[in-house]
Amino acid sequence: METSQSYITSHIKQRPTFLSNMEQFAKEQHIPIMEIVAIESLLQFLRLQQPKSVLEIGSAIGYSAIRMALALPEAVMTTIEKDEGRFQLASSYVTKAELTERIQLLQGDALEIDTNKFKLDQYDALFIDAAKGQYQRFFDKYSPLVPSGGVIYCDNMLMHGFTEIDIKEVPRRKRTMVRNLQQFTSWLMNHEEYETTFLPIGDGITISIKR
Asked: The CATH number of the domain where 36 resides is what?
């Protein structure tokens, strides 16, 4: 029997060749990008929100930044990538997509980078999709840049199912990361300054509206 995920995927419109090639490259090179159902859902949420500016933590090869820019033709964004090799790939793809005027790419550790380098002082939307064990620190550093009414999206909140099982069943090398993500999730869901929903889309997405 066909699973709901594959059934949904079968109804997603085919992407332009440029994007399909990016998806295939990421798959072949084992570079993590958003699952197709997750990115399509995120884009629909963003279309409803209509942010004029987006800050992304974790560019990878620039796939999600390009998808967001194409879905939000009036928006500008800043995206940060720690890995130099992936940053170079992202820069190349953004240039090929002719989006250099709207996507600011920065290379460096998001926890150390100087926010004075950013195009803007505030962003209507913040998208966190980087080191899972550091989500709390990313949130603490960048949530002040999101104004009241802005939205913070966090991907990979299920971490391939590891956050749903007993910590003793998690591989030892991943336990600290999983424990940090679990603690962050509980903290976020109970944060009085945000209205947060946890959705089982892709690898799990939280959507937090700042009061």
From this structure: 3.40.50.150
Is 190 labelled a binding residue? no
Residue 60 marked as a ligand binder? no
Is 157 annotated in some ligand binding site? no
> How high is the pLDDT of residue 52?
98
Q: What tokens appear for 181 in the block?
A: 């993500």
Cα gap 83→66, rounded to integer Å: 18
The count of domains in the chain is: 1
pLDDT digits (tens, 9 = 90+) for 108-157: 999 999 999 999 999 999 999 999 899 999 999 999 999 999 999 999 99
Backbone angles phi, psi at 70, to 5 degrees: -70, -35
Q: Is the pLDDT of residue 8 over 90?
A: no
Tell me, yes or no, whether 78 lies in a domain.
Answer: yes
Does residue 191 sit within a domain?
yes
Residue 140, marked binder: no
Q: Which is more confidently placed, 74 or 167?
A: 74
Nearest Cα to 130, choosing from 144, 146, 111, 115?
111
Query: Is residue 14 within 8 Å of residue 36, measured between CB atoms?
Result: no
Copy the structure tokens of residue 205.
């997405």
Consult the annotation and say whether 180 binds a ligand: no
User: Does the annotation list 189 as a binding residue?
Assistant: no
Does residue 8 form part of some domain?
A: no
Domain limits at 30?
A: 13-210
The pTM score is 0.94
